[in-house]
Amino acid sequence: MLTVESHAAGEPLRVITTGLDAIPGTTMLEKRRFARERLDGLRRGLVFEPRGHADMYGAIPTAAVTPDGDAGVLFMHNEGWSTMCGHGVIALVTVAIEVGLLTLRDVVRLDTPAGRVTARPRREGARVRSVAFENVPSFVVSLGDRVDVPGFGEVRYDLAFGGAFYAFVDAASVGLQMTPAQFRDLIAAGTAIKRAVMASREIRHPVERDLSFLYGTIFTGPALGPGANSRNVCVFAEGEVDRSPTGTGVSARIAIERAQGRLAPGQAFVVESIIGTRFTGRMARELKWEGYEAVVPEIEGSAWITGRSELLIAPDDPLAEGFILR
After folding, report:
1. Is 234 part of the annotated catalytic residue set?
2. H or E element: which one contains 308?
3. What is this structure's pTM?
4. Catalytic pick from 23, 59, 85, 233?
5. Could you report the per-residue pLDDT of 26-59, keeping only the tens digit for each?
6. CATH for the 138-298 domain, from 3.40.50.970, 3.10.310.10, 3.40.50.800, 3.10.20.30
């Protein structure tokens, strides 16, 4: 199985380029269901140790499921199969154009389980310098809700969707700083908050049942570097920490900033990650969508190819489906 290794703003993306049969399904949600039911052992083998690690992220390009789509994509991580991934879109489009999976083009239309994502690579010769993508409609579910979290007491959070649902929590309100030194404390707090929110309410997508789950907790606070508006640290799946600012998280954050009257259409909102890397978000347009005052966010960032691999899974390997140690 051949892969191209990459990262966007520090968050890895392993792109499977050859070695897999076509994944059946007439929609991306059908393909995702097939992958969950039939390919989960393969996911673990590709993402977990000894071929990956606890925070690995992967992508399987597929055929498009729409007449005008250029490709589809399924994203995978240590818990399962994602519905959308912003850093993954940035890295996948960069990889696809730089290694020739897609011919050079100004617009890449991707089909994802969450819906259509339209990406615009910005090139300098053969190099993709950055990718800006318009995400699926993003919206706020509620602001200022509170939940009792064991070990943290009552925690205030906002709930928003940007391709996946997130609970947004001010890091200082739970006594945390968003720095690498508090990496494990952030995992513990983010996981506890996610579980508490899930236990306290129903998470419901207005259209698709398969999108109706809480993906993670995003801690927010002041940026530590000049020129950024905020810092995001996303704890998602089974305690993964996004090294990037989280593209779907920035999308949901754009919806929150707009709902609170702090962001005008087209205004740049720069978000830095736990390691100081950045994505820039903008509100491309506003719309009413399935009963919500929603936005179409545009997120821009850069990615780099870091290598190529040939991954082997021997039929008698007792660790074919991998393992995780933290």
Report:
1. no
2. strand 303-310
3. 0.97
4. 85
5. 999 999 999 999 999 999 999 999 999 999 999 9
6. 3.10.310.10
